[in-house]
Amino acid sequence: MDFFGLLPTFGNFAYTVVAFVVALSIIVTVHEYGHYIVGRWSGIYAEVFSLGFGPVLISREDRHGTRWQIAALPFGGYVKFLGDASAVSDKASDALAKMDSDTLRHTMHGAPLWARAATVAAGPVFNFVLSFLIFSIIVFVRGEAIDPPTVGSIKNLPATQNALLPDDTILAIAGQATPDYETFYDVIEKGPVADTLSYRVLRDGAEQDITGPYPWPPLIQGVQPGSAAEQADLKVGDVITAIDDSPIIAFNQLKDIVVASDGRELKLDIWRDGETLQVTLAPRRTDMPQRDGSFETRWLIGMTGGLVFTPKTETPGVIGAMGYGVDQTVFIVKSSVSGLYHMVIGAIGTCNLRGPLGIAQTSGSAASQGIESFIWFVAFLSAAVGFLNLMPIPVLDGGHLVFHAYEAIAGRPPNDNVLRVLMTGGLAILLSLMVFGLSNDLFCP
After folding, report:
1. For the chain: N or C, fewer Cβ within 10 A?
2. How far apart are alpha carbons 161 and 204 in whole angstroms?
3. Cβ contact 256:263 at 8 Å
4. For the segment 215-256, what is each residue's pLDDT rounded down to a tens digit?
């Protein structure tokens, strides 16, 4: 059964809420399980593991004495350890004072420093591990395009001359050798733009020259959730044949027109499964993270292009897949750090910081594009949540780790009164960020 295919029957709002709750529940469960299991391994007892807040809907107690529960408000979760007064791990001072030394060792506040620090750090670490695993599994299942560029299947496009066949190995385009995909795209970027080009292919063990279509047409391969393209109802597989009544045949032509638009509305002619339609949309000024940690600001409509064929792929090795998972997770963290820095110095707009409504909308948009898109979003959000929790703000895990670092250096924990003030300040900062993000959700384009 296609779960996500059934959701639209309940309306867009329900679709978005369900997708958001599912994504958040996965991420919160993994995060809190990290705290729980490392705490248990470290000898710290957990009294409650809760997915959600408020009235308890379902609960059971396991053999370790932990009550596992699902609560009515599914927008978060917590682990309450022995000796905690509440879900935020503040001290139950009266209860702690009555405990003997053996029992005290099994509380969050009486355990050795290493055990407390490991338990706190485990939540964000498990979020990063989730992202790493998802990215690694996706590339392992989907495969990697093989070199030299080889045709897997031919895509459905507007009528054009296309002599390419599945399993053709593309050796050259317009007389330029294409030994790998990096060179292949470079040849397309610098080569001629025409309805048809000459190809040299290896077919059935023999080289031959054929005439094929321009290899990188304005074909939509992906639509960014929440983008102008999505709001204009553009679909994967659509081909943009003209902009403002001027025909285009190359994705780079589309990109150049959008970048130069300065945000003005564009009229797009769309070919979709043999039918022609028109849409109007306005590109949005977007800050795009780069691999080197910088940001590039340009006008975008929120789509990625695809080749005229689906590349033939092969399953990568386990090490290769794991390397891809690490690279993607590190890129998200680096982009988050760089994004905050560039917002603080005013290099990019503060509208890049989104709140719960924006995240919920993106969840629904990702789910509407299919299960792979949704899982990819969960991986992205999990890494972002892991990074957020490591920020040195009291109340967050990063704040607790700062307190533990102080204790390691000073030889004693911070004063309880000072901790209370810092926790109150941290909560105020966190609430302010949430309000700021929510205002961006409501008022930013």
Report:
1. N
2. 21
3. no
4. 999 999 988 887 888 889 899 889 999 999 999 999 999 999
